[in-house]
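This section describes the prediction task in plain terms. A model, or a person checking by hand, is given the sequence of a single protein chain and must write out its three-dimensional structure as a string of tokens. No templates, partner chains or ligands are provided. The sample shown here is typical of the held-out split.
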Amino acid sequence: MTNGQRHAARYNIFMANEDRLWRIAHERLLAGEKLVLCTLVASHGSTPREAGARMLIGAHGLLAGTVGGGCGEAEVMVSARKVFAGNLPSALLNVDLAGDLNQTETQACGGSMDVYVETLDQRLAATIGLLADSEEHRKRRVVATKIGGGGEESLLLIAPEGERAKILTPALHEYTQIDAAKLVTVGSDRWFVQPVGTREVLVIVGSGHVAQPLSRMAAMLGYRVVVIDDRSAFANETNFPDASSIVVSSHAAGLKTCGIDGFTNIVIITRGHQFDEEALREALNHSPRYIGMIGSKRRALATLKRISETNPSNQPHDGCRTERHADDVSQAQRYGERNRHPVTTENPSLRLDSGFRRNDGQNKSDLVSVTERVHTPIGLDIGAQTPEEIALAIMAEVVAQRRGGSGMPLMTLRATPKR
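The expected answer:
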């Protein structure tokens, strides 16, 4: 193994551990270790990570996470070692990614990022233990970091049920339901608030040849992976070592146990169309971030038409929303529709109602409503043929749905200003 391969392997381990960062911190603190936490609190322009990315450092170096790698992260590490040694108090760094310390070449990203570097000690162990519990069990809370703070109240937990309420200012309570990390000012103090317990979940319905590489890729990307299949000979830890949970049951029953929410992505790739339809019917009863189903256009459209006719209201239960968010719709217009069922008039042979009777305008409306919620045929068009390539195409679409990506080659977007 070359030095480059060793570095890549170590980096992948740190990335894989990112979702366990709070648990690792908790275990180390209980063992009496001193730690340094680096948090990306703001980004400007093009940066490799977004606000909320964290990196945990111990006595012997990096333990988990990353704030982007490269020379920018190396600069953060230099300051982190100073903080660890006690030669520097907690620090808010501005890292310029347009250039670096020792090279004349510019880096891949041309923006800058603000990274807060702070010491963690045993006084914070209880709070960090609750954060670890939030991530592992997907209990929604908010962590508030006081910029320039210190001591037990530099890292606080905010929860709708009022945890730690006695030491929180009323102004911080308004951030209990935030959906994204942000810097806020409360009086004369600056706080970085970030939701936790909202880790993305990929539910793979089916355990065949595409499901296995899909599970590996999703886990590498930080998703909690759940595999559902009714065959224990296929759905097991040997075939899916990266899965957080393996549910051996009927596909619909398995989906009912998943606690599906807006951070859930469902990929339906079972062994037969009848099983796909069974799973899709159940998935449509919920409001996940993403639903994708494998299959040809013809079979997929037939499945969607049957569902729209037997369940015309298409109402998710438990008060979940039926409509897609405006940004989801615009995103579908940017990339999804060209890879799913194109809702266009330019190509009549591919229209949603092609081959179907149109004696009822409501039927067409119901079909469009169902189709807007389901990505099928699944994945981005990369010419995939092998199971690994198909898995890559699927994950590319899942990530694009989450991040609001266009799914277009970057070289075609160079002249397009970033919104």
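For orientation: Residues 7-16, 315-364 have pLDDT under 50 and may be disordered.
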